[in-house]
Protein: HTH-type transcriptional regulator
Amino acid sequence: MSTLSPLVRGFVSHFGEMGSRWGINRTVGQIYALIYLSPRPVNADEIAEALEFSRSNVSMGLKELQAWRLVRMQHQPGDRREYFDAPTDPWEIFRTLAEERRRREVEPTLTMLRNALLEPAGTDDDRIAQERMQGMHDLIELLLTWHNEVNRMDPATLASLMKMGAKVGKLLDYASKLKVVGREG
Structure:
């Protein structure tokens, strides 16, 4: 892999900075960005050279990206090294990230809430705490149901839905008014 162009270097650098805000370290963010932009699969040595990282940091970063299912390993004929590429479809990437975050963060929280709600409330304070936990549980369950339904949509339908923005709320308000009129008539 040759020296990075200013365009690619800027993207890679930004992704590294944003990585820490998204729950991954800077190095992993930069490795991902480089693989994502690469027109061909790259190996760990090429990544280490291009980003001026140690080979061990690159190996650890690649393992983390594989665990997140954001990069795929492959072999090239006649070459014993492992090469990596990343999906290029933004919808596929978004869905992968959403599913991994769900599995790693949301489901354990939901399990904890379910268990806490099964405990007997020993005091008024516990009863109030459980009422609030129930509200959080119900919201998370509703969001997961919505996520499952949205996840089954094709990208074109999702894009159309997102472009509607606040119009969806207006449409729901209108539909609600029609139901009221239908009951009155």
In short: The radius of gyration is 23 Å. Residues 6 and 12 are 10 Å apart (CA to CA).
